[in-house]
């Protein structure tokens, strides 16, 4: 069966021969690659266009043999974007009565037969799918056994993920979707061996070197997911014992062995993840020390997670600064604002907008002004140039957090204990939590630190705990904490109120903090 890919092509093939197994052998496969194979693809189903989906394939690579009973339906689709070589498939027919078998004895004195010639499938890497043969009721009397091998012995350390599904119920005495075995490690076994059915069949048949994987499989179970730390996995399936099996698999090797990451590499089933030490952020697999982005001249755009603006003294009548963070909340604090003509908006002002929405217009000197908005904030400086005056001068700082769906704000009275959500596990990124403490008038609040483990950066500009001497964050800042210290001593308010604010960015984490609070007569 040959197919050369052309533009805007859709064609179907139906292979139907009663009483035989049909095996597809892929000799060449080169199609346009696309997400979820939605552009050019080859779709294979059992029976017809509405039958059980065996797979939808695209891209370039090796596809394992596909086998089914009686009928296979193939549909090839090509769009108009790219032209590739296409595919070449050979198909074979095999009588269902000519099934060669061998036996694997488990430690429990059980035996399962499976086909050695036509129903043995071996996968040696990557990600793919496997479908057990489907036996129409009344068409065949003898059992049809099959096996599937996941061979990761190319690496001394590999993980395997199995996602098993079925559309059959537990009727007719059939239970799980197959018996699963993993290889017991053997220090005498040679490393990197592939092709166990060709040269190592005695090893495969030795029950002392295989361990059966237990998994819960009730009569109604239709989805099972397993994560196995094994270099070799064997799935045995038989038509008279098990439900029809649809298996999606991942064979993962230790990509971290070659140290692709700058600081820390975490191996995952479908790849790897690079992590940075606290105080650093990941940029294209490199860990770069966190720094605050600074804008100090007109018409700048800031895109970092935290930053500072020192307004320009250039002789313009209008100057702007824009902070952009998609899908995040931006909190801007103006720590200092000096107007050339305080209180007169016709002569000078500082205007703050989010997209096209006006948030505020400031015309007087202020300190500690705060405003929050989503996605973007733009600050406009204006002055009347006919008076030969400079622009308003201001200093502002900002940080970003995720738009939280759950409130993280607490009002507490008297005495008690405070800790970050989830303490002592690592706190979440983009957190913004506030605790407001109060006691009776005539008393002060005493805060005693038990544990502090917050990502350290110079000046505590990213993850930090702020403590204010009053009812909100406009009160006097008593102290800011970050780093890893078990004893930060005691902090005492001047009145009967105190506010704690905990802020984190998107990278780096620690246990958080744990403090106790009480009150005493001032």
Report a brief summary of the structure:
This protein is an all-beta fold and 522 residues long.
Q: What's the overall geometry?
A: elongated
Measure the end-to-end span.
91 Å
Largest β-sheet summary: 8 strands, mixed
Counting DSSP H or I runs of 4 or more residues, the number of helices is: 2
Low-confidence stretches: 1-6, 97-118, 136-141, 187-204
Query: Any idea how many domains?
Result: 4
Return the average pLDDT rounded to an integer: 76
**Which percent range fits the helix content?**
under 10%
What Rg, in angstroms, do the CA atoms define? Answer: 33 Å
Q: Give the class from helix and strand content and strand pairing.
A: mainly beta
Count of distinct strands: 39
What does this structure look like?
With 522 residues, the protein is an all-beta fold. The protein folds into four domains: 1-95, Spermadhesin, CUB domain (Jelly Rolls, Sandwich), CATH 2.60.120.290; 99-275, no CATH class; 293-402, Spermadhesin, CUB domain (Jelly Rolls, Sandwich), CATH 2.60.120; 409-521, Sandwich (Jelly Rolls), CATH 2.60.120.290. The chain is 2% helix and 52% strand. The strands form nine sheets. Strands 22, 23, 24, 25, 26, 27, 28 and 29 form an eight-stranded mixed sheet that branches. A hairpin with a 2-residue loop joins β20 (280-283) and β21 (286-289). Residues 1-6, 97-118, 136-141 and 187-204 have low confidence and may be disordered. Residues 252-288 form the EGF-like domain. This is TLL1. Residues 22-94, 298-363, 398-520 form the CUB domain. GO terms for molecular function: calcium ion binding. InterPro entries: CUB_dom, EGF, EGF-like_Ca-bd_dom, EGF-type_Asp/Asn_hydroxyl_site, EGF_Ca-bd_CS, Sperma_CUB_dom_sf.
